[in-house]
Amino acid sequence: MITVIHEHKTLDVDARIKDNDLWLSSKDIEQKLGWAMKPEGLCQDEQCIPYPSDSEGDCLENGYLNVSKFWDLMGKPILHDEMKETWLLGAGHKERAEKLASLDAPDFSLPDLDGELHSLSDYRGKRIFLTTWSSW
Questions:
Q1: Quick one: pLDDT band at residue 57, thresholds 50, 70, 90?
Q2: How far apart are CA 61 and CA 134, in angstroms?
Q3: Residue ranges per domain, the chain?
Q4: What average pLDDT does range 3-7 have in this prediction?
Q5: Mean pLDDT of all residues in the chain?
Q6: Which candidate in 62, 68, 94, 119 could, as Cys together with 109 as Cys, close a disulfide (CB 3.0–4.6 Å)?
Q7: Can you say whether the dihedral through the CA atoms of 103, 115, 10, 48 is positive or negative?
């Protein structure tokens, strides 16, 4: 099993690693990443990324798709740890720029000293002060 981090979710998937690339089954791509493999390419909502015609064999193999190649085609970063057990499928520069321009912080939850979870969204419309500390 491989751990994939995508859109603030941690997913356990049955993946293949081949030549430093991440290969996922069509089932995992659709159910866990939200993309559908169609004859015209990899699709999500109205967006479709066509399979590269000159190297289609390099993208599809026995029901698995080379996700690394598609993330690169979309201009999105893909990273992995040294052991290739954890992969990050990052957002593209346009998506990151839109989030930054909105000045809206992403929602997250953290426990207080008593262990009670508090979410940032609980305080929308209110002024709050966030501080962090690390010993390293």
A1: low
A2: 45
A3: 1-136
A4: 90
A5: 86
A6: 119
A7: negative
